[in-house]
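USER:
Before I trust my own judgement here, I would like a peer's view. Write it directly below this note and I will take it from there.

ASSISTANT:
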Amino acid sequence: MCGIVGQISRNGSRLDPDRTRRAVCAMHHRGPDESGFWSGPGVELGMCRLAIIAPEGNHQPARDEDGDVRVVFNGQIYNHPELRRELESLGYRFRTDGDSEVIVHAYREWGTDAFARMNGMFAIAIYDARDGGSLILVRDRMGIKPLYYQLTGDRLTFASEVKSLRAMIDETPGVNAEGVLSLLTFEYIYAPHTLFHGVLKLEPGMFLRVSDRDVTQESYWTMPTTLRQITEAEACSELRQLMSDAVRGRMISDVPLGAFLSGGIDSSIIVALMTEHTDRPVKTFSVAFEDASYNESHFARMVADRYKTEHHEIKLQVDMSEMMKPIDLILDDPIGDFSVFSTYLVSRAAREHVTVVLSGDGGDELFGGYDAYLADKLSRTYALLGPAITQHLAPAILDRIRPSRAKKGLVNRLKVFARGAARPADLGHARWMIFMDDATRGAILTDDFAASTSAVDPTNHIRRLTGDCHALDTMSKDMYVDSRFYLPDNILHKVDRTSMAVSLETRVPFLDHRVVELALTMPISYRIRGVQRKAILKNAFRDLLPETIIKRGKQGFSTPMKHWLRSDLKELMLDTLAESRLKRDGFFRPSAVQRLITQHLDERADHAHLLWSMVLFGLWHDRYQGGKSGVSHTGSVQEVVAS
C-alpha cells in the first residue's frame, strides 16, 4: 500500500525533482515505511510505501531488466502469485517476491491488456521509455484506490491525493463550480471532478496514456448489466465460493491483519469467512455510540462472541481536537458523509493492533441493502395518488412536523420519503440521496454564482449513468448507479482517506470483480424479494450468521451530526458560515443560510447534510483559495532511489 506521485513533460523539458519529494512528504501517512524516486528525461516518479507484502523487498519504483519500464503503484494485486507463475513460464525472471515486479513484467508481456488480468485494488503509473516515451495511469475496476491528475499545456502531474499534486504545481487552481454543486447536492463530488478547476480524478476501470504525440483515455473493464441465465441455487453456490476465495486472497499479508465489524450482515459475513481461513482468533474492531438509535455495538459483540474473535470496541466521544483531524486530512477533496468521523476513529484504533483490515463495503450497493431501493419501489404505488398530493400537499404537511431526535423513526422516514418522492422520477432511488434540490439551490446561491452555474445540473450525472445501464428493471439500474457513483466517490473515497490517514490498509472482498460481475448480472429478485433486501446473501450465508443478524434491519455506519451541529460543532458552523465570510466569498446568500441554521438549531428541521457540506466547502475555500497554507506533514522514512 502506497502513495504515488509523478510528472511528465511531453516536450522533454527538465522537471524539478524537489517537487516530487515534497509531494511524497505531503502524504507520508500513506506509506511511512520507505520512499522511492526515479528521474528520467522529462519524467519524475515517486512513492511512499506501507510495507504489507514482502516488507524487506518489493521496493518501488520497480523496473524491468532493460530499464525501459518503470512502475510505481498503490494497492495490492491479489492474484500476483498466479500471474508470476504464468510469466515465469514465459521466460521472465524475478528478483523479488512482491507484486510490484509482477506489474512490470505483465505490462512488458501483455501491454495494457495486463490490467484486465489483475485482480486487486490499484492505482498504477507506468513509464515506458520505448517509442519516444509515454506515461500510463490506470485505476482499478471499482475505484477502491484514488488517482488524481492535472494536464496543463505539455505537462501532466499525478498523485494519490490532491494535496500532493498541489505540491508539484506552480499555482493553486481556482474553484470548479461543478464540484461545488456536486458537494452540496450529494455531499460528495462525482468523478472526474474535484473542487479544483482542472484537477481531475481518473475514473474506475480506465487508463490514461500520455505521450509527446497525444493524450488518450480508454476503458479496460466495463461494469456488466446483461442478465445471466442462472438459477438461484446456482447463484448462491457461486457467490459462496467466490466470496470465500475473495476473503482468502485478501488475507495474504506479511503483517498483522483484522476486520471492521459493525454487526451488519456484510461485515459479519467477512468475519465468518475469515475464521474459515485461519487457525488464530480474528482481530475485530467496532464503534459504540452513546445515542442508542445509532449504536450497533451489541450486534457486533454477538458476531464476535460466536466466532471467538479478539474484539475491540471503540467508544465514540466528541472531542473537537480529534474531530478536526479527519476533516484536515480529507479537506483537499472533501466529502460530507458523517461517518468520516467514526471510520477514522475505528481505523486509528485498529492501527494500534494491525496494519491491514478487511471491510464489508460494497454489499449494500451490489445486493440491495439501502432504504432508498425500497422507497423507489414503493413510490410507484404512491405516485397513483397524483401530483397534487405527492408533490405538494404531503411534503407541505410533513414539513410542518418537527423531526424526531432519533436517527430514523417513523416521522423522519415519512418526511424523507415524501421529500424524495416529490422529485423527478427519472432519478430513481437517487431522489432520496439529494440534499440540495432546485428550490433550495435557488434560495441559497447568490445571483452571480447562480448565473455562472445555470447550465450545470449535478443530477444529470445520475441520468447519464442510468442511460448506460441496459438492465430493464428499475432496481437493477439503481444498484448500477450506486456501484459507479455513490460507492467509488463517497464510500471508497471515505474509507481510503480515513484509513490511510493512520497508515492502515483496508481491503474489500465484496468488490472482487468476479463477485461484482455475478451480483450485477443475477435477476433482481435474487437480491430483493418483496421488502426483503439482500435475500441471496442471507440465503447463501445463513448457516454462518446468528438469526438475529439475518433478521435485523439496515442501520448504517453514521454519526449523530444533526446533534453535533447543535452542540460541539455549533461554533465551527456559525464561524464558517458567518455573514461576513459568506459575503466575502460570494457563493451563498447569508440570509438564506441563516434561515437554514436557525431552523436546524431550533429543531424545526434537519438540515445537517446541507449545512455540513457548506461548512466543509467554507473550510476548503479558506485554506486553498484564501491564501492559507495546507496542512504540513513530515515524517522519517527510509529512502530508496532507483538506479
